[in-house]
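Input set for joint prediction.
Command: fold jointly, output tokens.
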Amino acid sequence: MKAKFAYLTPLAIGIAAIAAVPVVFTLYSAVTVEPELWKRLYDTRLKVILPNTMKLLISVGILTLVIGVTTAWIVTKYDFRGKRIWEWVLILPLAIPGYVLAYAYASIMAPGGLAQNIWGSVFGDISKMPSLYSFWGVSFILSLVNYPYVYLLTRAGFLNQNVKYHEAARMLGASKIKRLWSINIRMAYPAIIAGVALALMEVMADFGTVALLRYPTFTEAIYRQMTARFDPSGAAALAFVLVAITFLLLNLERYFRGRKSFEQTKGAFKSQLPKKLNFQGTIVVTVMIILIISFAFFIPTLMLIDMAYDAITKGGIDSKFIEFTLNTILVSAVGATAASILAIPAAYLHARRPNALSKAVYYVSSLGYSLPGPVIAVGVLLTVAMLFNWLYGSILLLFMAYVIRFMPISLQSQESSISMVSKSMEDAARTLGSGTWRIFKDILLPLIKRGVLAGWVVVFVDCMKELPATMMLRPLAFDTLAVRVWVEASESLWEMAALPALLIVLAGLIPLIIIIKKMGARNGIKIA
Amino acid sequence: MRKFFISKKLMIMFLAVALLCANVGMAIAQELVVYSGRGERLIKPVLDEFTKKTGIKITLHSAGTVELLNKLLAEGDRTPADVYLTVDAGTLERARIAGLLQPIKSEIITKNIPAPMRAIDNSWTGLSLRMRVIAYNPQKVKPEEIKTFESLMNPKWKGRLGIRTGSNVYPQSHTAMMIAEKGEAETEKFLKAVVANAGDKIYPSDTRAVEAVAKGEVDVAIVNHYYVYGHLRKTPDDSKTLAFVVPPKTTYNVSGGGILKTSKNKEAAQKLIEFMASDEGQIMFAEENREYPVNPKVSAHESMLKRDKFTLSTTTLSTMGRHMMPAIDLIDKVGYR
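tokens >
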């Protein structure tokens, strides 16, 4: 029986090494950095970006918490007209990458733009208008982009609450406020914290928003260390600090996700019945939701459509545009396909033979998802510099980064699809003399096809949206949609960026459909 | 199925022949690979003229000046590049310090190019001259108010001053020259004051900064001189709201180039640099962009300010270049994005 996994294990280990080697090189470069460089980095970079990043984590943490929990509360505890639509509309901002939203608002708030006109006619003095290029501007954008993580997880947390606790508490004479606090909030708080931690990890990984709005944080500092100074060891040192903070957050999230002590295992599960809202109540919550979703999705998207329309009528779809659209499709398709194929051995082993080794391989292969793009890019560059210098400047570097960053998504979707297929069919086939490849091709693959495909689509879209690693690793003059958005937007050529940005948002809607379908099952997503 | 195999074989043969032809072709005609940070629109005509004259073909890779330096550093001795052209002497000096550039022995260059505008070992040379100037709106600002860059430290410019993003080589080399002249402490004070005055009026390009002055968004801005000329050429009416002052002993820079140590075509590469340093090349290189030829004997375009109407800093560009890294550090330190 052992023989059937014989070559799968070394294969999976080899693939895990692709993810691990760049991380190892980065850590190695960071710990061997001269104390002198650390001091200089502290004086010129860390002194600015550490407090900047911390401030941002706090403000976005609070804002996403408030928006996410409030909206989750409204759609789970109340029943009102249109709720079923609002429930999924609230996750739409996930389709917009931070840099696209930042760009859309930068164009809205540009001199002579829409916002200044409105401000001018209402308040008069334009110079008093708050600037987007500020701490609050960045907080605003990143909160709008990331609150859906808190919303999604909290909503699931609320839905998983058993009404029996409420009944018991009421019988014991607990006041309404007390019940709200100690049952609803305290029981959902692992989910809430996990959501906020996820949002904050996105904040740590964000490059485009902070770079576009000129608010220096780690990712931007790492990018500059490579692009302005070509200083890989300095970049690695900064990456090291960033990764340390990210892992702290990640473990916080894991810790809270792991806490399921509130879940009731025995007895029938009964969800709390949502309270029917009267007319005024419906108006209040609907206005609230519309306000949030307009700022987070509809206003910026309409602005993009408007600008894209202008760009098209002025001849915006030229051969260049077609070229970088094709480039984007090409790299994303190769990235997604590579990630899907390379994930198979580790996913299979983890599902079929969960031992210490396969778990370790799975964990190491999943590392990349918690690493910000610039960190992966630095790792890839260091690896290439030390091992395969001749590869420099080739598009393979880009694929390597995509695989490291997004293979964890393929792993997860494949692992869960494989575990759902009963092992007995494979065993039966084996008894009848089929080889591993044939079993995989004829039995397993047809059954897990959907899961693999779903994973492929998500990775494809993520590759499309990826900005920092693409910027740092692309061959000279190789443009993608994401790169064009960033370049044109940082040159304030608003209209030129609109069409690529719109395409990215449209593509971003596709994976949301998968999430919405899952939400459809009313008591749907479990936190785990 | 059979048919398919035949066509596949044919295809391979065809490819082999094509590859062979391409190789032979390359061996016959001399060819140079140029990494250029200078705008393609500006450099292409010069290179085409060179090819017409000498028959030497050129493959042009255009990208950001610093981006190309990073590429050269990473590619090491595997780089296909023969010639590296930049819009900034500081980056050329960085390339020289990193040992990428080959000293050039050429009388044409030593005769035509003033010493402060080339490397001490002649491993790079300036080709066109540009100055940092103060663009202003004559309807709102008197030239006496902006005699020097330091005058922009005055808090009265709060919200009225536009500057370029700190990640660009122009403010970086400006800062480097200032450090060379006044030291880090003074320069830090200057940067802090100017960044505070600019607020969020930080422009992603000099073109935008000049436009901002012309449109009344800001009253003054620090830019390269030729952007003002460029804007006025496109929209002459804006001369009412756009002019510039050259501070005495102003900060200057060159766009220039050098030959890679690893080049296998150094002779042809030197011909190219010499062509660009020649009288004819100098005019082609500078005129379209309204820069000054580095060779003072070649006259600048007639519409431009005459050379005896302004003075340049006495700091050499090599000295400026050596202060480039401290300048980038300082810019980061004061949070100038």
